[in-house]
Amino acid sequence: MSLEFLITSLIVILLPGTGVIYTMAIGLGRGFRSSIMAAFGCTLGIIPSVFASVVGLAALLHTSAIAFSIIKYLGVIYLLYMAWSIVRDGSPLDLEENSEQRSNWLIVRDAIAINALNPKLSIFFLAFLPQFVSSETNNPTLSMLVLASSFMAMTFLVFVLYGGLASLARDYVISRPKVTIWLKRSFAGVFALLGLRLALSER
Predict the structure, then answer these.
(1) Quick one: which of 2, 26, 161, 174 is 20 to 30 A from 101 by CA?
(2) Which H or E element spans position 38?
């Protein structure tokens, strides 16, 4: 595993995306422990993309407009659903002192869906991982799995950091209702914009 791979992966992971936004929302709304579950779910959501890349299914998404569109619009629908949920009742960004009552399973489920329903993630891995697999390796599949596992471990650690930083502002936000309302609207808007961006994206 090269230093170049680690640095490139870190840069990619640090860039704010749907997983980062969701983890930070959970950190603000439900605290650090819940944000760890969100980070865990987002990391698990990478597994389908890794699997698709290893077995070549990502190539199908790249060449088949229908397959790509189906997965893409499922992702769009889910992101818009998340935005609507926040506007409707504050879920998953329920900024209340007792909001940790929401089950860890629901947090993990939403986090998995956010990443799993993004076809561009599979195509990213298809283009990204092979670049760091030596042509001289005897088992390229194993090499890709090792690289993917490292990427996932880094994702989890970085997302936990994002969630932890967000949770530090939790008490400040809860004590200021106007800030709470602004944050809810902001996160809802971000999820809606991410859904729109995914809807307009090309293969």
Answers:
(1) 161
(2) helix 32-44
pLDDT at 98: 47
Spatial distance between the Cα atoms of 106 and 68, rounded to a whole number of angstroms: 26
Taking residue 54's Cβ as centre, other Cβ atoms within 10 Å add up to 18
> Mean pLDDT across the stretch 148-162?
93
Q: What one-letter code names the amino acid at 71?
A: I
**2 DSSP assignment:** -
Angle at 12 between CA 103 and CA 8, to 5 degrees: 135
- The answer to whether 23 touches 31, Cβ cutoff 8 Å, is no
Tell me the whole-structure pTM to 2 decimals. 0.73
> At 97, phi and psi to the nearest 5?
-65, -30
In the three-class reduction of DSSP (H, G, I as helix; E, B as strand; rest coil), residue 102 is classed as coil
* pLDDT bucket at 41, cuts 50 / 70 / 90: very high
DSSP per-residue string spanning 124-176: HHHHHGGGGS-TT-S-HHHHHHHHHHHHHHHHHHHHHHHHHHHHHTHHHHHT-
Q: Which two three-digit tokens encode residue 140?
A: 């390229």
Backbone angles phi, psi at 136, to 5 degrees: -95, -5
